[in-house]
Amino acid sequence: MTKKYALALGIGLAVVAGVGVLSVRAIDEAPAASDVKKLADQVGQKDWAELSKEGQTVAKKYMPPEKGELLDVMTVFKKRQKDGKGGLGVGKEAGVIVPDGIEAKILNLSKRVTPGDLDKAADLKRMAEISAAVAGIAVHLPNDEAKKSKEATKKWQDYAKDMHNASKDLIKSLDGKSNPAQVKAAALKLQTACTACHNDFR
Known about the structure:
Number of strands: 0
CATH topology of the largest domain: A middle domain of Talin 1
Largest sheet: none
Distance between the termini: 52 Å
Helix content: 55-70%
CATH class of the largest domain: Mainly Alpha
Strand content: under 5%
Structural class: mainly alpha
Order of helices and strands: HHHHHHHHH
CATH architecture of the largest domain: Up-down Bundle
Number of domains: 2
Shape: globular
Low-confidence stretches: 1-28
Radius of gyration: 20 Å
Mean pLDDT: 86
């Protein structure tokens, strides 16, 4: 009887441990990555109204009472890990562009733009497309603080639009023969939009 109880307890603990590992893994692998990338493919063809309308369809997957949440979308900004987990990173190959995380790279560009950065303009444009796509989804996923009043919700929506517009400006600054000062200014505008939202709602 004792052995059976121990076996059952062992299996139960293994199942609980497994669920814990899966929960951590789900966060590490940016659950919304596929949806974000698909929407990012449309950034160049759609304005804010059209993109955010498409983003609403994606956002419904991450609205309560569904299992997902805003964090599932925002995780794409995390640094990419060598095993392919974490955020989407910047560029196709992990570690080629440093820092290899969208949030970290935007912050980096807002302070200094190097010739090496300009050589990777296509990858940086894709990074900005992902940022714009996230804005188009996040606008429909206000957190609890942003739901406290109509004014707070409107402010959240305005921040999301600012993030989208700043992302588009960064894309534009990287077109053709890029000017380091213009890229830096666009990155700073995007960083400022993100920071303002974080300050009010994080």
